[in-house]
Design brief:
The complex is a heterodimer of chains A (about 220) and B (about 110).
Chain A: E1 3-4, H1 13-21, E2 27-34, H2 37-61, E3 70-74, E4 77-83, H3 84-89, H4 96-112, E5 122-129, E6 135-136, H5 147-155, E7 163-167, H6 168-181, E8 197-199, E9 208-214
Parallel strand pairs in A: 1-6, 5-7
Antiparallel strand pairs in A: 2-4, 2-5, 3-4, 7-9, 8-9
Helix pairs in contact in A: 4-6
Chain B: E1 2-7, E2 12-20, H1 25-37, E3 42-53, H2 55-70, E4 74-78, H3 82-90, E5 98-100, H4 103-107
Classes of the chains: A alpha+beta (about 220), B alpha/beta (about 110).
């Protein structure tokens, strides 16, 4: 449950105590960004931009029941977070592998829809977070903070249209799911996964390992 | 999920029973692709007992449609439950698939 942080005294010992005791909330964080939507906003106006954003968000969210996990949206980008215990309880896509498969499929459906005037192509970054806390500084809001959320956002820098970037941490979770499910290492969209890549992201003190999947 | 198969004079009817998601979409994928490769290019997918579909299931249906269209065959769906129909509408599938409310109605177009 989200912890609301709001103290009027900047030196409040109570605030420090509360922050120290907030438990971690491990789970999967992913960012979904719609490509070229700013161009369309200026070229086609609100009705064209809004229509395609509506259609694309719907396609990304509803078939997989992701809508309940949207933490925030900023223009054409969404941040989603699924706590590990919530992921396990999901009716479907309740493993990291299943989650990856459904995200891949959502991007595939948009890319391959015969009417290319309905949707906009997307890019995604996914990370399995352990250094993350369910806190907010705004009353009534829900949010997640932590260095792993920051890292997920950084991974977006290596994403591109119709590409999924996944941290090595998330990939290892997926690989573990495959073992548990008795599936081969190249099951589903993992046939298209890259070798391990390394990057020194700004503000991240250590190198980050990641992989990419290009949606066909 | 279970699949049923029935051959008629007009087409092959594949029935989907249960949930079509990441745990089982490969079963449907193999069935539909095997049919296409064996020159069965008239396929009706009967969905009255399919109660859930995720993006992975939708992807297999779209792949099958593209494959059968290349073969100049016919691929249609019928008997979608209300919640499935909603997912199809949101995904823009109702405009690209031939969808019929009953099996009888669908069989007339094959």
């Amino acid at each position: 449950m989200v912890q609301y942080i709001h103290y009027t005294d900047p030196t409040s010992p109570e605030m420090v105590r509360v922050l120290e005791e907030i438990p971690r909330c491990p789970g999967v964080c992913f960012f979904m960004d719609i490509n070229r939507s700013t161009d369309i906003k200026y070229q086609g106006g609100l009705k064209d931009w809004g229509r395609k954003l509506n259609n694309t968000f719907n396609n990304l969210l509803y078939a997989n029941h992701f809508q309940q996990h949207v933490v925030k949206g900023i223009g054409d980008e969404m941040m989603l977070f699924i706590p590990e215990d919530a992921l396990k309880k999901k009716f479907s896509n309740n493993t990291c592998f299943a989650l990856l498969e459904d995200i891949y499929s959502a991007l595939y459906l948009i890319k391959n829809h015969p009417d290319q005037d309905l949707y906009l192509n997307c890019k995604v970054a996914i990370h399995y977070c352990t250094e993350v806390y369910n806190i907010t500084f705004f009353e009534g809001a829900d949010d997640y903070y932590g260095s792993d959320v920051d890292l997920t956002a950084r991974l977006m820098a290596r994403s591109a249209e119709n590409r999924i970037v996944l941290s090595e941490t998330f990939y290892l979770k997926v690989a573990n799911d495959l073992v548990n499910l008795g599936l081969p290492p190249d099951a589903g969209c993992l046939k298209r996964i890259s070798d391990r890549l390394m990057e020194n992201f700004k503000g991240v003190p250590v190198s980050t390992a990641y992989r990419v999947i290009e949606v066909q | 999920m279970e699949l049923t198969e029935q051959k008629t004079d007009q087409c092959i009817i594949i029935g989907i029973v249960g949930r079509l998601d990441t745990t089982n979409y490969t079963v449907l994928e193999k069935k539909l692709m095997d049919l296409a490769e064996n020159h069965h290019d008239k396929i009706l997918v009967e969905c009255s007992k399919m109660d859930y579909i995720s993006s992975s299931g939708l992807r297999i249906l779209l792949m099958a449609l593209k494959k059968i269209t290349l073969l100049k065959g016919k691929f249609a769906l019928c008997c979608l439950q209300e919640n499935i129909q909603e997912i199809f509408e949101i995904s823009g599938f109702t405009s690209i698939f031939e969808i019929y409310s009953s099996r009888e109605e669908a069989l007339k177009v094959f």
